[in-house]
Amino acid sequence: MTEKVRFRSIVGPELAGAIDLPDGEIRGWGIFVHGFTLGKDSPAASRVSKQLAREGIGMLRYDNLGIGDSDGDWGDGSFTVKVQDTLRAAALMAERGTPADLLVGHSWGGAAALAAAAEATGIRALATIGAPAEPSHVERQYDAVMDRVLSEGSHEWFVGGRTLVLKRAFVEDVRHAHLRDRIRELTLPLLVLHSPTDHTVDIANAGEIFREARHPRSFVALEGADHLLTARGQAQRAAHIISAWADPYMSTPS
């Protein structure tokens, strides 16, 4: 079963979320942070969250600003906004009496999860899937329009079958965001999952994240998986691994 929720972004508009409720005995709760322009219903977010719920870990997944069912303009977001909205998601879970133990971030959402984890209410463990070591990795996706954005203040950008407006403040925020210090200072258990055949975010990023992190840290290669976890069974496989690894850190371990 899925429960629909809404909460306010740090910049004001309401964000739409879905909580995949745990099957059977409740082991704990978590939050899934989706990739750059993906959304809560993308294969990685939806399939990983639903599989974790089947294994007793209820998961909140939500659309970032201007994505999917959320209000607002995507261009008014930024990496900083994504991080702050992750903290708001954690606050929502705590307010409803189901504080999140686990934070899972996919792709650019993995970078946001790394930046937010230390401040997020109740989080006891963090897992990343195909995450870049720096937020600026995403610049290669909009490189073709970046000069126009910087000179004109904003420019339309066609991506994923839709047109978004990329703004100068967004680009500048990404350029000023640095993760390495956040990773070094992280005191939570960290699981890094990455495919050796990820052609969107090279696996070298996983090595950088792992080297910067303190123990307890773990790495698992998602051999055969694509970046978006669209291949049959790959998202569920990632969820199985996360579920087993996270068990000691759940508020009610099985």
TrEMBL record:
Domain AB hydrolase-1: start-end pairs: 31-231
Keywords of the record: Hydrolase
GO molecular-function terms, A-Z: carboxylic ester hydrolase activity
Pfam family name, one: Abhydrolase_6
UniProt xrefs under PANTHER family: ESTERASE ESTD (PTHR43265)
Name of the protein this chain belongs to: Alpha/beta fold hydrolase
